[in-house]
Design goal:
The structure holds two protein chains of two kinds. By secondary structure, chain A is mainly α. Helix content of chain A is about 50%, strand content about 5%. The longest helix of chain B has about 40 residues. Chain B folds into two domains: about 130 residues, Penicillin-binding protein 2a (Domain 2) (Alpha-Beta Complex), CATH 3.90.1310; about 325 residues, Beta-lactamase, CATH 3.40.710.10. Chain B is an alpha+beta fold. The N and C termini of chain B lie far apart (about 140 Å). Chain B contains 18 helices and 18 strands. The chains are: A mainly alpha, B alpha+beta.
């Protein structure tokens, strides 16, 4: 009888020892995974920050304006293009009163940009000013990081 | 079996008894040990908090210097952020081949001098910095070299991706990330609070509007060879400043000279004599106090002699002018006569209510007090009525004019985005809504018929008032050096925005018949700004609306 009891306990001890060991192993693995993940998250956060800063840098209004003037057949929006309500849009020639069927009124203010004629010969008022160009221009366009590090200098 | 045990006797029996007794000792120890473990287990499980900190903190090296919170514009565009920019350092004793190492470092960082790098590598110091603020690419290359003696020390740097664009509002930080000016300094408690690092600071600025204002101002500055300029766009119903620019300006990323003229925010830092812009206040107080009505007329036939001074008109009509004409044609004589009716005490009271006696209100440091006349006699009262002898900052003027046309509430300017609608009763009513209504029409008249006609924009009803003041040079008014300004608002049937432009010492050019007055120089700037900003801000254009009181004006008489 006592042998049965003893062997039962021994078995229990072995099993529980094994369980504890495997639990510990699992926990450690999870811990490692967790710290790895949180490190990755921090890294990603930093990367997102860098990217957002770079995006803001690349989307500087001045730069976009230059690029748009050079590559896009678009002109800045003008006040004449704005329609406050659907009624403000002129009907097409020959179309009678029933050209549009008004389904519902747009919610309160509803500024819509109407198309203007395509600017073939673009004569857009674009003040160019030498004075406000970014300093430290290299011959090849410096990247964001090069630019910010360039101006810092080597101060010891 | 048990019966056999029971019958063991004598020596054997005693030995077994001893063994059993001895067995009790380890058994007791076992029980004690496990008991302690169980008690500890239960206490940890129940009483102690589960802490992640130890594992969580592990990947974060202790060397992250100081987090500063990001600054965004009202649409979430990054204006200032912190990026990691490690510094390269060296432990010279761990460098075995200095020449080769120096060659490779200079190859990665071309800005460095090979000799000085080599000297550092060979020196007897423990630790030396080679270069600060490396870019990620450079860091990668340095790591790829694989020298154990080269150390990359974590550091953070404040970055302003927009460069010069909003530099005066943002301010800047020094090498140790300590704020030195602007919003950076004013909101340092928030910005340097690590707990709030996930709550970026939303400014009221709109970077697109800011760009337009800055570009137009720079264009005009160049055109008229002015030495400086200032521009603002303010939402008159909330006090939010959508754009605030001062030229020349600086790049917060670069090396800065704190005392240079680029660092000066002309919108708040220096009081100027604003000139005729002040007539807005004079007429408003006259109408609001009821001493003068729109139909009253004043004799501006001849220059006004008060004591030793003579008050002249720049655009003299040499006839009797009524109140709308005085405002529209910007008659100094007329406004002096009006203020004589109003009285000195009332003038002071009103100006105080308009906030002209205090520092301007905005979330920036370095705000300047207005310069008031030391003695407020009749002549001073008269010059103040057309904006001379009193110097205020442009922000004073913008906030004051906003109050004149937004229904009469003086709303303090703010640089922080307001997400909730304003409580109308919260701000002091400085003039009555009826007077404010009249002022809208008068300002519209000044653009339609008067000195501000070059601010006219197709599709929008622009109103405004020009201002030209002679600069004080060596205690005397200079004929050449002028401060020209224009404070405009649109759309005048339901004003939303005040637009201000000021140029410091513009020179007349052929196109303007060598005139450098507010109407020729600053008004077109405001016009261009409104033309570009209007569609951007979703302000709907209006058909032409006939201005009230225009029947009171004799447009061509006396010219």
């Amino acid at each position: 009888m006592i042998k049965v009891v003893v062997s039962f306990f021994v078995l229990m001890v072995v099993i529980s020892a094994g369980t504890v060991y495997s639990l510990k192993e699992t926990t450690e693995r999870l811990e490692a995974r967790k710290s790895q993940l949180s490190a990755q998250i921090l890294k990603d956060h930093a990367a997102i920050k860098v990217l957002r800063a770079e995006m803001a840098y690349l989307a500087q209004p001045e730069r976009l304006q230059k690029l748009s003037a050079r590559f896009l057949a678009l002109a800045p929006a003008e006040s004449g293009q704005m329609a406050g309500a659907i009624n403000a849009i002129a009907t097409r020639e020959g179309g009678g009163q029933n050209m549009y069927k008004l389904v519902s009124f747009p919610v309160d203010e509803f500024p819509v940009l109407l198309p203007q004629s395509k600017p073939l010969n673009k004569k857009i008022h674009k003040p160019q000013n030498k004075r406000i160009k970014p300093q430290n221009k290299k011959i090849e366009a410096p990247s964001f990081y090069e630019r910010i590090s360039l101006t810092i200098g080597d101060d010891e | 079996m048990r019966s056999a045990d029971l019958h063991i006797e004598g020596v054997k029996h005693e030995a077994i008894e001893v063994a059993r007794n001895r067995l009790m000792v380890p058994a007791f120890l076992f029980v004690l040990g496990f008991g302690i473990l169980i008690v500890r287990l239960v206490s940890i499980g129940i009483f102690e908090d589960i802490s992640d900190q130890i594992t969580h903190a592990r990947p974060v090296t202790t060397e992250i210097v100081q987090e500063r919170v990001d600054i965004l514009d009202r649409n979430g565009v990054v204006l200032a952020t912190n990026l990691s920019a490690p510094s390269l350092a060296v432990r010279p004793r761990l460098i075995t081949e200095p020449e080769e190492t120096a060659d490779k470092i200079v190859a990665v960082l071309p800005g460095l001098n090979r000799t000085s790098v080599l000297n550092k590598l060979k020196s007897s110091h423990h630790f030396l910095y080679i270069k600060r603020n490396l870019t990620p690419k450079q860091v990668w290359h340095i790591n790829a070299l694989g020298y154990p003696g080269l150390i990359l020390e974590q550091a953070e740097k404040r970055i302003y991706p927009q460069g010069n664009l909003a530099s005066h509002v943002l301010g800047y930080v020094d090498v140790e990330n300590r704020p030195q000016a602007g919003v950076e300094k004013f909101f340092n408690d928030h910005l340097s609070n690590a707990v709030r690092s996930n709550e970026p600071l939303y400014l009221s600025l709109d970077i697109r509007v800011q760009h337009i204002v800055r570009q137009e101002l720079a264009y005009a500055m160049n055109k008229f060879s002015a030495i400086g300029g200032a521009g603002m766009v303010m939402d008159i119903n909330s006090g939010e400043i959508l754009a605030m620019t001062s030229l020349p300006d600086f790049d917060g990323n670069g090396s800065l000279q704190p005392a240079s003229s680029e660092m000066k925010n002309r919108n708040i830092l220096e009081p100027y004599e604003m000139g005729s812009g002040f007539k807005t206040f004079t007429i408003a107080m006259a109408l609001d106090s009821g001493t003068v009505t729109l139909n009253d007329s004043f004799d501006a036939t001849e220059p006004l002699k008060v004591g030793r001074r003579t008050i002249n008109d720049d655009h003299a009509k040499e006839r009797i002018l009524n109140v709308p004409e005085i405002f529209t044609f910007s008659s100094n004589i007329g406004s002096s006569l009006i203020i004589r009716e109003v009285g000195i005490e009332q003038q002071k009271n009103y100006l105080q209510k308009f906030g002209m006696f205090e520092k301007p209100v905005v979330e920036l440091t370095g705000l300047s007090r207005p310069i008031l006349p030391a003695h407020w006699g009749e002549i001073q009262s008269m010059t103040v009525s057309y904006g001379h002898g009193i110097a205020v900052t442009p922000l004073h003027l913008v906030a004051g004019v906003s109050a004149m046309i937004n229904g009469g509430r003086l709303i303090p300017a703010t640089l922080i985005r307001k997400d909730t609608a304003l409580d109308n009763d919260y701000y002091p009513q400085v003039i009555s809504p009826e007077t404010s209504q009249k002022m809208r029409h008068l300002m519209r008249l000044a653009v339609e018929y008067g000195s501000g006609s070059r601010a006219h924009v197709k599709g929008y009803l622009v109103g405004g008032k020009t201002g030209t003041a002679e600069k004080v040079v060596n205690g005397k008014y200079s004929r050449q050096d002028k401060i020209t300004s224009f404070v405009g608002a649109f759309p005048m049937d339901n004003p939303k925005y005040v637009v201000f432009a000021m140029l410091d010492e513009p020179k007349g050019i052929e196109e303007t018949f060598y005139k450098a007055t507010g109407g020729w120089v600053a008004a077109p700037v405001v016009g261009e700004i409104i033309k570009r900003v209007g569609p951007l801000l979703g302000v709907l254009p209006k058909e032409y609306i006939e201005t009230k009181y225009h029947n009171l004006i004799l447009v061509d008489a006396g010219k």
